[in-house]
Amino acid sequence: MKNYLTLKPSAFYLIAILLFLSSCGSRKYVVKPENKASKAADAMAALKSKDLYRFITDWTGVKYRLGGLDKKGIDCSGFALLLERDIYGRTLPRRSRDQAEAIKKKNQSNLEEGDLIFFSFGGTEVDHVGVYLNNNFFVHASTTRGVVVDDLNLPVYQKAIVKTGTLK
């Protein structure tokens, strides 16, 4: 067995560097899970309506399909229509533009669970709708990700909001 003192100086330095580097990797850092997914999960857990919770989890991930109204694919206005009908017993028109005309305007800071949020991503007319949950989270049928819970504070949504409110 070799004695450390009989090692060549270069081998001794190499061992010392490796020990130093490995000791840095053994430190534990606590990272608070404040990511987007955990915040969306918190918003879901805070829902007052457990029927709404079940409805959203049942539809989450269903792909977007223009004109769709079932689990094979659904668009934003169809999702809002089914949610409002099945959870709140409210009747909405089919198109998001018409849905926007059927609501009583409400300030975004006063939104409550089940209120509607309308967006315009392509100009001045309403072309998207979502349903408010709580803590600035909403559920909608995204054209790229399907039915998802999203953060209303994201700049892409803040820039596009044109109307918020509750069904008349």
Automatic annotation (TrEMBL):
Domain NlpC/P60 residue range list: 46-168
Keywords, ordered alphabetically: Hydrolase, Protease, Signal, Thiol protease
Identification of the protein by name: Hydrolase
Pfam family for this entry, one: NLPC_P60
Protein family per UniProt: Belongs to the peptidase C40 family.
Keyword Protease: yes
A GO MF term: cysteine-type peptidase activity
